[in-house]
Amino acid sequence: MAKRKSRNQRRREKxxxxxxxxxxxxxxxxxxxxxxxxxxxxGIIILGVYIHCEGCxxxxxxxxxxxxxxxxxxxxxKNHKVIVKGKKADPTKVAxxxxxxxxKHVDLISPKxxxxxxxxxxxxxxxxxxVVLKIYLHCEGCAKEVKHCIHDMEGVHTVDPDMEKNxxxxxxxxxxxxxxxxxxxxxxxxxxxxxxxxxRREEISDEREDIFYQNYPSQAxxxxxxxxxxxxxxxxxx
Length: 238
Description:
There is one protein chain. The protein is an alpha+beta fold. 45% of the residues lie in helices and 20% in strands. It has seven helices and eight strands, in the order αβαββαββαββαβαα. It has helices at residues 2-39, 54-64, 91-102, 140-151, 176-187, 199-215, 234-237, and strands spanning 44-48, 72-76, 81-85, 107-110, 128-134, 156-162, 167-173, 192-198. β2 (72-76) and β3 form a beta hairpin. α2 (54-64) packs across α3. It is elongated, with a radius of gyration of 34 Å.
């Protein structure tokens, strides 16, 4: 009788352990699904990708088709965006997948990952620069591609390419050296700084000149004449 009881107890303990393990696995799966839903609550992922032709769009579709959680893929070539639909799709993994498969630069526009939420710090804006770059432009397509690439950099205001001289004039609040690095990394092109002008410093110098001329009297003031009632020493000289 004692042996039967010990066997039954062992079986019960074994069943209890198996049931607990199954419950743990279920809770882990539920928590993983909840995390995915928190990362992608609407089931829509918007990626920023430069798309200049139909072949680029087909490459993006091939890279994401059949990936985990991806249900639909829409290409917005005009706005250079890729819309991915799927409630179980992880935005960060989808963006990383597209980077690896296509070799393109991919920006996760929406939704933003939770780990990217940082404390707000006072931003120090760079000075306003006008930079002239030497970039080889052999066709209009290259000029458009370079222009679009530079416009993606934060702080850039205007981009004016000159195909005949292979020059690109860029105006904006950015570091000229970082601009060169950005073009090399994003567009894969070699750029050299031909000239750079700190427009902010010129504005400050112009403002100082204006202040100087504003404070300077508009009418000339002459010194009192030697023999004049305005000269207190005129009598002593006499």
